[in-house]
């Protein structure tokens, strides 16, 4: 191999430092058969380059270990942060395995070689046993998420072909206004002029889309504050806004976490608490029903009656 020039040496040096490795000047000398002064100039060139073009990064020297490393001032990804992201991705089951595996590999590749060795055994078993949702097998959600995010930012009007939860094919002209994730699925919140309201569509059920000739003006669209609405929507069923008080004998912390706009009114006895939540009725009813006999709705009366009527209909399903 020909003797490397300064540009080649410094590019090689920068590539290793950017990947998180710590480099000793002696190793750099041995790699390229250069003297100490030349090696020092290479490191100085990297430091000057960072100072001029990437001043959020610094080339630091560890006097104890006698090596150089790149300090991103907290901008890099630590192995703990990487592990959390991967764990959330695995637990969400939101992506097909063919999309998940390259994404996990890309996250791990951002770590130093040593950190990669630490992380891989921790995630190996969970990644190998990952069970994708059946309907995601042929879906490319990563590209769709990016595409619809751009459509939202550009305030486009589109026509979609959509498969409903009842397996009915429909066509709708909509204006996407928000993209969110909840309970395994990504959703597109869109203004639908036909119904004159925002409607939630599951992203993986959008079979095709195209730009629409029928532009929906901004002043016709209904604003949607995703941050505020996410505090109230349960299971992505909006319904009507409602404030509910209920007695609860389950794990209070879990109930309060489920409803971000919530509080404890009082402790009734050692096992029972009176809680209050502000939410939307449809999704909330579904969650309350999932809590077995740990929930007793106190108010409002009409919601309490709806809960009772639903339970009676459920009981009727088991009458022989």
TrEMBL record:
The WCX domain, residue ranges: 259-315
InterPro entries attached to this UniProt entry: CBASS_pafABC_assoc_protein, WCX_dom, WYL_dom
Residue span, WYL domain: 150-209
Name used for this protein in its record: WYL domain-containing protein
Organism: Ligilactobacillus agilis
Lineage: Bacteria, Bacillati, Bacillota, Bacilli, Lactobacillales
